């Protein structure tokens, strides 16, 4: 996934995300920081949300089943990976990847997983903390090898 694909996915689902929360257009526009007119244009497919609006939706509605169905269990993680071109530091306790993730490799106290929806990769330790995330499989495998050889 890249920035444009995330923007398109959020734009295409923003109406359903709003309805899932039972928000009016006025309330949704207020929450994400855009005008009602802009929200209507996005919902009708006449324009796409900007990156800032996309980030706001992912941050504020990360628990949305609609949003998770297009970006995976942690939509904000996808946004973070794209914005920073990967994440490489111990961070965030996760749920361990029991639903949205397939295990690619396990060695020692680390496991490499791939998200079944967004297709990004991450490395978790045996306590389910995320050490690395990227859309680039070769980067993920390289970092996995580094961690397991330390």
Q: Would you kindly provide a brief summary of this structure?
A:
By secondary structure, this protein is α+β, with helices and mostly antiparallel strands. It has helices at residues 3-20, 25-32, 36-43, 51-60, 65-71, 75-84, 137-148; strands at residues 87-93, 101-107, 110-115, 121-125, 129-134. The chain contains 7 helices and 5 strands.
Task: For the structure shown, list the relevant keywords.
elongated; alpha+beta; 150 residues; five-stranded antiparallel beta sheet
Structural description of this entry:
The chain has 150 residues and is an alpha+beta fold. It is 49% helix and 21% strand. The chain has seven helices and five strands; from the N terminus they run ααααααβββββα. The protein is elongated, with a radius of gyration of 17 Å.
Present the secondary structure layout.
Blueprint: H1 3-20, H2 25-32, H3 36-43, H4 51-60, H5 65-71, H6 75-84, E1 87-93, E2 101-107, E3 110-115, E4 121-125, E5 129-134, H7 137-148
Antiparallel strand pairs: 1-5, 2-3, 3-4, 4-5
Helix pairs in contact: 1-4, 1-5, 2-3
């Amino acid at each position: 996934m890249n920035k444009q694909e995330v923007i398109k996915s959020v734009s295409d689902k923003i109406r359903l995300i709003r309805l899932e929360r039972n928000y009016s257009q006025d309330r949704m526009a207020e929450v994400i920081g855009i005008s009602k007119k802009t929200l209507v244009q996005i919902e009708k497919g006449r324009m796409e949300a900007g990156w800032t609006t996309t980030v706001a939706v992912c941050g504020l509605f990360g628990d949305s089943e609609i949003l998770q169905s297009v970006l995976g269990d942690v939509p904000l993680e996808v946004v973070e990976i794209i914005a920073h071109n990967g994440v490489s530091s111990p961070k965030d306790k996760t749920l361990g990847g029991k639903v949205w993730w397939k295990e690619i490799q396990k060695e020692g106290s680390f496991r490499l997983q791939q998200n079944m929806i967004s297709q990004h990769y991450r490395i978790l330790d045996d306590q389910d903390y995320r050490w690395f995330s990227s859309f680039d499989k070769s980067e993920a495998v390289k970092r996995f090898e580094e961690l397991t050889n330390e």
